[in-house]
Amino acid sequence: MTGEFNLNNKLLQIEKVDIFEVEREKNHRHSYMQGRPCDAFIFVESGSLRYSFSHPANNIIQANTENFLFIPKGAKYYATYLEDNTRIKLIHFSIGSGELPSYLNEPKKIALPNSASIVKSFFKRVVSLPYQSFHYLSLLYDLLWQIELVNRR
Description:
Blueprint: E1 3-7, E2 10-24, E3 29-32, E4 39-46, E5 48-53, E6 59-64, E7 68-71, E8 77-81, E9 86-97, E10 108-109, H1 115-122, H2 132-152
Antiparallel strand pairs: 1-2, 2-9, 3-8, 4-7, 4-9, 5-6, 5-8, 7-10
Helix pairs in contact: 1-2
């Protein structure tokens, strides 16, 4: 499903939204050294992990329980899980046209007070499966809008 939204005075068209829940043990390592294939928001539900990026050089983000991150498409990195039973929720999305605001050009932690409840809303079961993609799309646009409001302050 495709949707459009005017964000930061730019038309942004999102083509696809996928969600995943992942739980890994300590020292598990996951990498995107060829570059992440899509944009992603990551919420650390429990535990901690370290993201090591090749650009900007030597950029390291340690993410702990209830941290919320954004990692843009093309980012090259590896993640190391620092605790047993570290659980994360991922929201992957693809942009059809337009671009994200400049504050989402690089990997970063995002200070969004209600990020836990917003991210968890993606994982609530929707009764009618044919509308699932519309549901994810609307939630993602709302999430982007909430981040926009925080960045305007």
